[in-house]
Amino acid sequence: MYRHLAAHRDGRDCVLVVYRNAKAKADASNRRMGETGQGGDVQLEADRKWWPIAPARRPRVKAIVYVADGTVVRVRSVDPDPSKWREDDRGYADVPVSREPLDDLQIAEQLPTLGIRNGDQRPHVRGKLREYMLL
């Protein structure tokens, strides 16, 4: 486990895998989170904000994989340019993800060692909200 947590220090690229419930929900400020049930800008906003990704790891995160109810629903690539990352007052990141999700061909080209495609089953482990997978 510790080898995976420190992988960014070894120069290893990774993806962030996020586990969600397919039911739409909103926080106290009415910002939609998780799966919104809406496409376009609303889902993009929910997909990119706010993630606790350490500044040292950010250049190594190549994509975010979204899993809802045990199924991969989309993969978005991440722009590693540090000038495009923003933080809130807690240090959580507004991640510069691709506007459109990657299709299976783009996943294979951009992330050849990932081994995950849209529609794949990825069972949720109780208590796990997210994890990093090494590429």
Task: Describe it.
The protein has about 140 residues and is α+β, with helices and mostly antiparallel strands. Helix content is about 15%, strand content about 25%. It contains 3 helices and 8 strands. β4 and β5 form a beta hairpin. The radius of gyration is 14 Å and the shape is globular. The mean pLDDT is about 85.
Summarize the structure.
This protein has 135 residues and is of the alpha+beta class. The chain is 15% helix and 26% strand. The protein has a 4-stranded mixed beta sheet, with no helix packed on it. A two-stranded antiparallel ribbon has the order 2-3.
The succession of helices and strands, N to C, reads HEEEHEEEEHE
- The shape is globular
Low-confidence stretches: none
Number of helices: 3
Helix content: 10-25%
* Rg of Cα set: 14 Å
| Strand percentage | 25-35%
Count of strand segments: 8
The pLDDT mean sits at 85
Major beta sheet summary: 4 strands, mixed
Q: Strands of the largest sheet, in order across it? A: 5-4-1-8
Structural class: alpha+beta
Oligomer: single chain
From the N-terminal CA to the C-terminal CA, the straight-line distance is: 15 Å
